[in-house]
Amino acid sequence: MTDSSLRLPAEWEPQAAVLIAWPHAGTDWAERLDAVESTYVALAAAITRFQPLIIVVPDTTLRAHVTTKLRSTGAHLTQIRFVELPYDDTWLRDSGPITLREGDRFQLTDFRFTGWGGKFGAEQDDALIAGLVDEGVFGSAVHKRIDWALEGGGIESDGTGTILTTWRCLVQRHPEQSREQMSAILRESLHAQRVLWLDYGYLEGDDTDAHIDTLARFAPGDRIVYQACDDRSDIHHDELQLMGAELAALRTADGKPYTLYPLPWAKPIVDEGRRLAASYANYLIVNGAVLVPAYGDTADDEAARIIGEAHPGRTVVQVPCRPLIWQNGSLHCITMQLPAGLI
């Protein structure tokens, strides 16, 4: 395998499966386990309509519990594979493998996972990819460990050599490094040609330090879908307006502007006095469909319509995600897609 031929596929390319870890009483979901399980059940049912799903569980007891739940709600159990491994939390977008490919050969890129800059314990999550490799999930794929902190939610790939990320996140992870140094590391480790940076954009209640997948997403045909805010009274208005201007100024590798799809803004969701980060940009693409967060807001349907328009030819499925944002993430954050041919 020649390194120069590796690339990070776009999410809309064909997939083998989606990887998730099931919440349980030993995770931070313990207080609201029933509510969050309802989201995971809906997500599993939606994914298995279109493709396989790999579910990580810590033991056979939880495996049996999850199987019972899924059987009663119409998920396609023949599409599901369980893997038993320990984990600290369920945000597999950030602790799961970032898979590079060259034809039918694959590299599982395993960056250091630090619990979002040391905010939470992450020792088991940092070992998750190695555990999945040991369990034989990925066949003959090469496992490459990189001793540099990066989460999957912190980067977007267009599949053709461009990475989109945020300065706010990566400068928090690597305050000693310059933008130029970090760009070089991203280009080398992800085999990209260029890195585009956003300086603006954040969501109150987000403890990822402004992951790009809560803010702006590449879509096919040189499109970018992004979370906008049209409420001038909202604390996010000015920052997201500035981010929208940054996106409008970006150019494709061919020097053309991107086609932008601004998403509507959900009304503030407050839980015990804490503002929650309800982003519609945190959607998941699967084979033939796009799964869109729903928060019980009047903007849900319009967000789903716009995301569907940006991803033509795909079925749009809304997944209730209000329970997820209690822990500061949404649909994309709890999942990791695996490219076709990997498993």
Automatic annotation (TrEMBL):
It comes from the Bacteria. It comes from Dyella lipolytica. It holds the Pfam family PAD_porph. The keyword Hydrolase applies. PANTHER family: AGMATINE DEIMINASE-RELATED (PTHR31377). Keywords: Hydrolase. This is Agmatine deiminase family protein.
